[in-house]
Amino acid sequence: MSNLDAHYMRLAIAQAELGMQHGEFPFGAVMVDRDGSVIASNYDTIERDNDFTSHAETMLAKIACRATGRRDLSGCTVYTTVEPCPMCFTTNWLACVNRIVWGATMKEVAEITGSAVRELAVPAEHMNELGGRVMDVVGGVLRDECLVPFTQKMAMLEKQPG
User: Fold this and answer.
1) DSSP for 49-111?
2) What is the rounded distance in angstroms from the CA atom of residue 104 to the CA atom of residue 12?
3) Which residue among 58, 98, 117, 160 is the one 20 to 30 A from 80 at the CA level?
4) Which residues is 41 bridged to in the sheet?
5) How much is the pLDDT for 162?
6) Is 80 exceeded by the pLDDT of residue 81?
7) Model pTM?
8) Quick one: CA dihedral 62, 66, 71, 72, positive or negative?
9) Nearest-angstrom CA–CA distance, 108 and 82
10) Is 124 helix (H, G, I), strand (E, B) or coil?
11) Residue 105 phi/psi, 5° resolution?
12) What three-state secondary structure class fits 117?
C-alpha cells in the first residue's frame, strides 16, 4: 500500500463517517484524476433518496462526469471503503475508470452487519476478469479502519428503541 493510497482511502473513510452522521450505512468513496486531484467524493444516500441505486461509487461516477463534462473517466482512480458491488463496479467500468482501490470486503461487512446490509457477493476480481477491459483492482487498503464505522453503526442501531 502506498502512502497516496492510504491518504485517499482516509478521505473515503471520512465520507463514510459523514454518511453515517446523516443516517446512512458508512460506505464512502472518492475519485482522483491522473494528477491526484479529488474530482468527486460521496457517501451512500440510499436512506435520504429512498433509492437503492444511490451507492457512493455509482453517485461518484455521476458527480465526476458532471464535474469534468465527460463520460470517459480514463486515468481516474476510485477509492472506496468497501469492495464495490456489481452495480458500482459496472458503473465505473463503463466510465473507463482505470483503477479501483477498496478497503474491506463485502463479506466482512456482511459479517459485521448481519442482514442489515445486503449485496450480491461477487468479488471485484471476478467482475474484473469478466469485463474484457481489465482495471487495476487493489483490495484491503486500510481494511481495519474501513470496518470501524460499520461496527459503530451496528452499535448505534442496537441502542435504538425497538
Assistant:
1) HT-TT--HHHHHHHHHHHHHT-S--TT-EEEEEEPPPHHHHHHHHHTT--EEEEEE-HHHHHH
2) 12
3) 160
4) 30
5) 63
6) yes
7) 0.94
8) negative
9) 9
10) helix
11) -85, 160
12) coil
Set of cell numbers at residue 36? 491526484
The three three-digit cell numbers of residue 84, written as one number: 464495490
* Residue linked to cell 468479488: 123
| Cell numbers linked to 159 | 441502542
Pull the grid cell for residue 160: 435504538
Nearest to 106 by CA among 133, 146, 58: 146
Give SS3 for 137.
strand
Q: What is the pLDDT of residues 46-73, one digit of tens each?
A: 999 999 999 999 999 999 999 999 999 9
Catalytic positions are 57
**Alpha-carbon span 95 to 100, nearest angstrom:** 12
> Comparing C-alpha atoms, which of 124, 32, 42 is closest to residue 74?
32
Joined together, the cell numbers standing for residue 17 give: 463517517
Which DSSP string corresponds to 21-47?
Answer: HTTS---EEEEE-TTS-EEEEEE--HH
Which 8-state DSSP code applies to residue 1? -
Write the single-letter amino acid at 8.
Answer: Y
Smallest Cα–Cα separation from 120: which of 65, 74, 52? 52
Alpha-carbon distances, residue 142 vs 4, 96, 124, 131 (angstroms): 12, 25, 17, 26
